[in-house]
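Example record

Each entry pairs one chain with its bound ligand, fe (ii) ion.
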Amino acid sequence: MSEFLIPKEGLRPAPEVPQPNIFPMEWRTETPKLAEIYERAKREGFNPALINWSGLQPEAYSDDEKVAIMYWWALLSNFDSSGPAVFARAMIRAWESHEESPVRRCFFSITRDEQNHEECCERVIMKLVPDGPLGFAPRSELQRVALNNIGWLYHNGGRYWSGYNRAVDKYPLSILFTSFMLGEVASSTLFHGMSRATNHPVFREIFSSIGRDEARHLQICMTLLEKSWPGLSDEDRTFVTKQLRAGFVFLSMVLWEPPGQFWDLPDYFLHNHRILLRIAREAGLGVLTFDQQADNWRLAIARVRRIVEKWGIAFPAIPELDIDGVDVGDITADDIIPVF
Ligand SMILES: [Fe+2]
Ligand SMILES: [Fe+2]
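C-alpha coordinates for the complex follow.
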Protein backbone atom coordinates (compact mmCIF):
# COMPACT_ATOMS: atom_id res chain seq x y z
CA MET A 1 0.00 0.00 0.00
CA SER A 2 1.49 3.34 -1.07
CA GLU A 3 1.01 6.40 1.14
CA PHE A 4 0.49 8.43 -2.03
CA LEU A 5 -2.85 9.02 -3.66
CA ILE A 6 -2.81 7.66 -7.16
CA PRO A 7 -6.14 7.53 -8.96
CA LYS A 8 -7.05 4.31 -10.72
CA GLU A 9 -6.87 6.02 -14.12
CA GLY A 10 -3.34 7.27 -13.25
CA LEU A 11 -1.75 10.68 -12.52
CA ARG A 12 -3.08 13.54 -14.61
CA PRO A 13 -0.34 15.52 -16.46
CA ALA A 14 -0.44 19.26 -15.69
CA PRO A 15 -1.65 21.42 -18.58
CA GLU A 16 1.11 22.81 -20.76
CA VAL A 17 2.06 26.37 -19.92
CA PRO A 18 1.09 28.60 -22.83
CA GLN A 19 4.23 30.27 -24.23
CA PRO A 20 5.87 32.77 -24.14
CA ASN A 21 5.99 32.39 -20.39
CA ILE A 22 8.74 32.27 -17.79
CA PHE A 23 7.38 28.88 -16.60
CA PRO A 24 8.13 25.98 -16.54
CA MET A 25 11.37 26.51 -14.65
CA GLU A 26 14.51 24.75 -15.88
CA TRP A 27 18.26 25.22 -15.64
CA ARG A 28 20.31 24.33 -18.68
CA THR A 29 23.92 25.28 -19.32
CA GLU A 30 24.95 25.25 -22.98
CA THR A 31 27.64 27.91 -22.82
CA PRO A 32 29.90 27.38 -19.80
CA LYS A 33 31.86 30.52 -20.72
CA LEU A 34 28.80 32.63 -19.92
CA ALA A 35 28.51 30.94 -16.54
CA GLU A 36 32.15 31.90 -15.89
CA ILE A 37 31.54 35.52 -16.90
CA TYR A 38 28.55 35.63 -14.58
CA GLU A 39 30.70 34.42 -11.67
CA ARG A 40 33.23 37.09 -12.54
CA ALA A 41 30.48 39.72 -12.57
CA LYS A 42 29.69 38.80 -8.96
CA ARG A 43 33.31 39.33 -7.92
CA GLU A 44 34.23 42.30 -10.11
CA GLY A 45 31.12 44.41 -9.63
CA PHE A 46 31.66 47.59 -7.60
CA ASN A 47 29.62 49.33 -4.95
CA PRO A 48 29.07 53.00 -5.82
CA ALA A 49 28.39 53.75 -2.14
CA LEU A 50 32.02 52.85 -1.35
CA ILE A 51 33.54 55.42 -3.70
CA ASN A 52 35.27 58.18 -1.75
CA TRP A 53 32.49 60.73 -2.32
CA SER A 54 33.86 63.13 0.28
CA GLY A 55 36.77 63.61 -2.12
CA LEU A 56 34.38 65.29 -4.57
CA GLN A 57 34.04 68.79 -3.19
CA PRO A 58 31.47 71.05 -4.82
CA GLU A 59 33.33 74.10 -3.41
CA ALA A 60 36.22 73.30 -5.75
CA TYR A 61 34.13 74.49 -8.70
CA SER A 62 32.31 77.68 -9.65
CA ASP A 63 28.51 77.43 -9.93
CA ASP A 64 28.72 77.40 -13.72
CA GLU A 65 31.42 74.71 -13.69
CA LYS A 66 29.28 72.57 -11.41
CA VAL A 67 26.36 72.85 -13.82
CA ALA A 68 28.58 72.14 -16.85
CA ILE A 69 29.96 68.99 -15.19
CA MET A 70 26.46 68.00 -14.08
CA TYR A 71 25.35 68.56 -17.70
CA TRP A 72 27.71 65.84 -18.91
CA TRP A 73 26.43 63.41 -16.25
CA ALA A 74 22.86 64.22 -17.28
CA LEU A 75 23.94 63.50 -20.85
CA LEU A 76 25.44 60.19 -19.74
CA SER A 77 22.27 59.37 -17.81
CA ASN A 78 20.32 59.56 -21.05
CA PHE A 79 22.16 56.29 -21.84
CA ASP A 80 23.36 54.71 -18.61
CA SER A 81 20.25 55.46 -16.56
CA SER A 82 18.01 53.89 -19.16
CA GLY A 83 20.27 50.81 -18.94
CA PRO A 84 18.55 49.11 -16.00
CA ALA A 85 15.07 49.33 -17.53
CA VAL A 86 16.26 48.49 -21.05
CA PHE A 87 18.23 45.42 -19.93
CA ALA A 88 15.52 44.38 -17.46
CA ARG A 89 13.11 44.18 -20.38
CA ALA A 90 15.62 42.18 -22.43
CA MET A 91 16.21 39.96 -19.39
CA ILE A 92 12.48 39.19 -19.17
CA ARG A 93 12.57 38.33 -22.88
CA ALA A 94 15.42 35.91 -22.18
CA TRP A 95 13.35 34.20 -19.44
CA GLU A 96 10.22 34.04 -21.55
CA SER A 97 12.07 32.47 -24.45
CA HIS A 98 13.70 29.93 -22.12
CA GLU A 99 17.28 30.87 -22.85
CA GLU A 100 19.82 28.73 -21.04
CA SER A 101 20.35 29.75 -17.45
CA PRO A 102 23.79 31.47 -17.94
CA VAL A 103 22.23 33.76 -20.59
CA ARG A 104 19.48 34.82 -18.19
CA ARG A 105 22.00 35.37 -15.42
CA CYS A 106 24.31 37.40 -17.62
CA PHE A 107 21.40 39.64 -18.54
CA PHE A 108 20.58 39.96 -14.88
CA SER A 109 24.19 40.95 -14.15
CA ILE A 110 24.16 43.62 -16.85
CA THR A 111 20.93 45.00 -15.40
CA ARG A 112 22.61 45.02 -11.98
CA ASP A 113 25.72 46.76 -13.31
CA GLU A 114 23.71 49.37 -15.16
CA GLN A 115 21.92 50.12 -11.91
CA ASN A 116 25.33 50.91 -10.41
CA HIS A 117 26.16 53.15 -13.35
CA GLU A 118 22.88 54.92 -12.87
CA GLU A 119 23.65 55.35 -9.20
CA CYS A 120 26.93 57.04 -10.13
CA CYS A 121 25.05 59.52 -12.34
CA GLU A 122 22.66 60.18 -9.48
CA ARG A 123 25.35 60.63 -6.85
CA VAL A 124 27.50 63.00 -8.91
CA ILE A 125 24.52 65.09 -9.97
CA MET A 126 23.08 65.29 -6.43
CA LYS A 127 26.46 66.26 -5.06
CA LEU A 128 27.16 69.04 -7.55
CA VAL A 129 23.66 70.35 -8.29
CA PRO A 130 21.33 68.93 -5.62
CA ASP A 131 18.15 69.76 -7.52
CA GLY A 132 19.56 68.61 -10.83
CA PRO A 133 19.29 67.57 -13.50
CA LEU A 134 16.00 69.37 -14.16
CA GLY A 135 14.72 70.74 -10.85
CA PHE A 136 17.26 73.50 -10.16
CA ALA A 137 16.60 77.22 -10.62
CA PRO A 138 19.12 78.53 -13.18
CA ARG A 139 21.00 81.62 -12.04
CA SER A 140 23.06 82.38 -15.14
CA GLU A 141 22.81 82.13 -18.89
CA LEU A 142 24.97 78.97 -18.89
CA GLN A 143 22.67 77.35 -16.34
CA ARG A 144 19.54 78.29 -18.31
CA VAL A 145 21.05 76.86 -21.48
CA ALA A 146 22.14 73.63 -19.73
CA LEU A 147 18.66 73.14 -18.27
CA ASN A 148 17.07 73.62 -21.67
CA ASN A 149 19.50 71.22 -23.40
CA ILE A 150 18.90 68.53 -20.74
CA GLY A 151 15.16 68.84 -21.40
CA TRP A 152 15.84 68.17 -25.09
CA LEU A 153 18.11 65.22 -24.31
CA TYR A 154 15.41 63.56 -22.21
CA HIS A 155 12.80 64.30 -24.86
CA ASN A 156 14.89 62.17 -27.21
CA GLY A 157 15.55 59.57 -24.51
CA GLY A 158 11.78 59.26 -24.18
CA ARG A 159 11.43 58.73 -27.94
CA TYR A 160 14.13 56.04 -27.75
CA TRP A 161 12.32 54.24 -24.92
CA SER A 162 8.98 54.22 -26.78
CA GLY A 163 10.69 52.87 -29.91
CA TYR A 164 12.65 50.26 -27.93
CA ASN A 165 9.44 49.00 -26.33
CA ARG A 166 7.91 48.49 -29.73
CA ALA A 167 11.04 46.75 -31.07
CA VAL A 168 12.08 44.53 -28.18
CA ASP A 169 9.42 41.85 -28.68
CA LYS A 170 9.61 41.95 -32.46
CA TYR A 171 13.12 40.59 -32.97
CA PRO A 172 14.91 37.40 -31.96
CA LEU A 173 17.18 37.76 -28.96
CA SER A 174 20.26 37.07 -31.08
CA ILE A 175 19.52 40.26 -32.99
CA LEU A 176 19.06 42.22 -29.80
CA PHE A 177 22.44 40.98 -28.56
CA THR A 178 24.16 42.15 -31.72
CA SER A 179 22.46 45.49 -31.43
CA PHE A 180 23.87 45.89 -27.94
CA MET A 181 27.40 45.16 -29.05
CA LEU A 182 28.30 48.52 -30.54
CA GLY A 183 27.14 50.21 -27.35
CA GLU A 184 29.32 47.98 -25.21
CA VAL A 185 32.42 48.44 -27.37
CA ALA A 186 31.86 52.18 -27.51
CA SER A 187 31.19 52.60 -23.81
CA SER A 188 34.18 50.54 -22.69
CA THR A 189 36.37 52.71 -24.96
CA LEU A 190 34.76 55.92 -23.72
CA PHE A 191 35.18 55.21 -20.02
CA HIS A 192 38.76 54.02 -20.34
CA GLY A 193 39.61 57.17 -22.31
CA MET A 194 37.92 59.40 -19.75
CA SER A 195 39.57 57.67 -16.79
CA ARG A 196 42.92 58.66 -18.32
CA ALA A 197 41.80 62.20 -19.20
CA THR A 198 40.18 63.29 -15.94
CA ASN A 199 42.20 65.10 -13.29
CA HIS A 200 39.90 64.09 -10.42
CA PRO A 201 40.47 60.84 -8.48
CA VAL A 202 36.74 60.35 -7.79
CA PHE A 203 35.85 60.65 -11.47
CA ARG A 204 38.78 58.39 -12.34
CA GLU A 205 37.54 55.73 -9.94
CA ILE A 206 34.01 55.90 -11.36
CA PHE A 207 35.18 55.80 -14.97
CA SER A 208 37.51 52.87 -14.47
CA SER A 209 34.90 50.92 -12.48
CA ILE A 210 32.23 51.48 -15.13
CA GLY A 211 34.75 50.75 -17.90
CA ARG A 212 35.54 47.38 -16.33
CA ASP A 213 31.82 46.51 -16.26
CA GLU A 214 31.35 47.60 -19.87
CA ALA A 215 34.28 45.45 -21.00
CA ARG A 216 32.55 42.48 -19.35
CA HIS A 217 29.25 43.36 -21.05
CA LEU A 218 31.10 43.32 -24.33
CA GLN A 219 32.43 39.82 -23.60
CA ILE A 220 28.88 38.69 -22.86
CA CYS A 221 27.62 40.08 -26.17
CA MET A 222 30.50 38.49 -28.10
CA THR A 223 29.98 35.11 -26.46
CA LEU A 224 26.27 35.29 -27.25
CA LEU A 225 27.01 36.20 -30.83
CA GLU A 226 29.45 33.34 -31.26
CA LYS A 227 26.67 31.08 -30.09
CA SER A 228 23.90 32.56 -32.21
CA TRP A 229 25.43 33.86 -35.44
CA PRO A 230 25.36 30.58 -37.40
CA GLY A 231 21.57 30.63 -37.07
CA LEU A 232 21.15 34.15 -38.47
CA SER A 233 19.13 34.40 -41.68
CA ASP A 234 19.95 36.87 -44.48
CA GLU A 235 17.11 39.01 -43.22
CA ASP A 236 18.59 38.98 -39.71
CA ARG A 237 21.99 40.01 -41.08
CA THR A 238 20.48 42.93 -42.97
CA PHE A 239 18.74 43.98 -39.81
CA VAL A 240 21.98 43.82 -37.83
CA THR A 241 23.68 46.04 -40.42
CA LYS A 242 20.97 48.61 -39.91
CA GLN A 243 21.28 48.28 -36.14
CA LEU A 244 24.97 49.06 -36.31
CA ARG A 245 24.14 52.32 -38.06
CA ALA A 246 21.38 52.94 -35.48
CA GLY A 247 23.98 52.46 -32.74
CA PHE A 248 26.22 55.03 -34.33
CA VAL A 249 23.35 57.50 -34.66
CA PHE A 250 22.14 57.06 -31.11
CA LEU A 251 25.43 56.77 -29.22
CA SER A 252 27.19 59.59 -31.04
CA MET A 253 25.37 62.01 -28.78
CA VAL A 254 27.57 61.01 -25.86
CA LEU A 255 30.56 59.63 -27.77
CA TRP A 256 30.99 62.39 -30.31
CA GLU A 257 28.34 64.61 -31.89
CA PRO A 258 24.91 63.53 -33.10
CA PRO A 259 24.49 63.08 -36.87
CA GLY A 260 21.43 64.49 -38.61
CA GLN A 261 19.24 61.41 -38.05
CA PHE A 262 16.85 60.47 -35.21
CA TRP A 263 17.80 63.33 -32.88
CA ASP A 264 15.04 65.90 -32.62
CA LEU A 265 16.84 69.02 -31.38
CA PRO A 266 16.52 72.79 -31.77
CA ASP A 267 19.18 74.29 -34.03
CA TYR A 268 20.97 76.04 -31.16
CA PHE A 269 21.40 72.80 -29.19
CA LEU A 270 24.72 71.65 -30.59
CA HIS A 271 26.40 75.04 -30.34
CA ASN A 272 25.48 75.33 -26.64
CA HIS A 273 26.33 71.67 -26.05
CA ARG A 274 29.89 72.23 -27.30
CA ILE A 275 30.41 75.16 -24.96
CA LEU A 276 29.06 73.26 -21.95
CA LEU A 277 31.34 70.30 -22.70
CA ARG A 278 34.33 72.60 -23.13
CA ILE A 279 33.72 74.13 -19.70
CA ALA A 280 33.30 70.67 -18.12
CA ARG A 281 36.53 69.57 -19.84
CA GLU A 282 38.44 72.63 -18.64
CA ALA A 283 37.17 71.93 -15.11
CA GLY A 284 38.91 68.53 -15.32
CA LEU A 285 36.03 66.11 -15.86
CA GLY A 286 37.91 64.21 -18.56
CA VAL A 287 35.58 64.87 -21.52
CA LEU A 288 37.59 64.09 -24.64
CA THR A 289 37.90 66.65 -27.43
CA PHE A 290 35.93 66.40 -30.68
CA ASP A 291 38.96 64.90 -32.47
CA GLN A 292 39.85 62.48 -29.67
CA GLN A 293 36.23 61.33 -29.60
CA ALA A 294 36.21 60.83 -33.37
CA ASP A 295 39.40 58.73 -33.09
CA ASN A 296 37.84 56.69 -30.29
CA TRP A 297 34.75 56.06 -32.36
CA ARG A 298 36.82 54.98 -35.37
CA LEU A 299 38.73 52.56 -33.16
CA ALA A 300 35.57 51.08 -31.62
CA ILE A 301 33.86 50.82 -35.00
CA ALA A 302 36.88 49.15 -36.60
CA ARG A 303 36.80 46.56 -33.82
CA VAL A 304 33.11 45.82 -34.28
CA ARG A 305 33.50 45.80 -38.05
CA ARG A 306 36.19 43.11 -37.90
CA ILE A 307 33.97 40.97 -35.69
CA VAL A 308 30.73 41.20 -37.66
CA GLU A 309 32.35 40.88 -41.08
CA LYS A 310 33.92 37.64 -39.92
CA TRP A 311 30.35 36.45 -39.47
CA GLY A 312 29.21 37.58 -42.91
CA ILE A 313 27.38 40.67 -41.68
CA ALA A 314 27.88 43.75 -43.87
CA PHE A 315 28.89 46.99 -42.21
CA PRO A 316 26.87 50.18 -42.72
CA ALA A 317 28.34 53.33 -44.24
CA ILE A 318 29.39 55.94 -41.68
CA PRO A 319 30.24 58.87 -43.96
CA GLU A 320 30.53 61.12 -40.89
CA LEU A 321 33.76 59.28 -40.03
CA ASP A 322 34.76 58.52 -43.64
CA ILE A 323 33.85 54.86 -43.17
CA ASP A 324 32.41 53.23 -46.27
CA GLY A 325 29.83 50.47 -46.25
CA VAL A 326 26.22 49.64 -47.01
CA ASP A 327 23.64 52.44 -47.23
CA VAL A 328 20.88 51.47 -44.78
CA GLY A 329 18.58 54.44 -45.38
CA ASP A 330 16.99 56.59 -42.72
CA ILE A 331 17.18 55.76 -39.02
CA THR A 332 14.05 56.53 -36.99
CA ALA A 333 13.05 56.12 -33.35
CA ASP A 334 11.67 52.64 -34.13
CA ASP A 335 15.06 51.45 -35.35
CA ILE A 336 17.09 52.17 -32.27
CA ILE A 337 17.78 49.30 -29.90
CA PRO A 338 21.35 49.96 -28.67
CA VAL A 339 22.19 50.76 -25.08
CA PHE A 340 25.32 51.33 -23.09
FE1 LIG B 1 26.57 51.16 -18.44
FE1 LIG C 1 26.88 48.12 -20.66
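DSSP finds ten helices and no strands in the chain.
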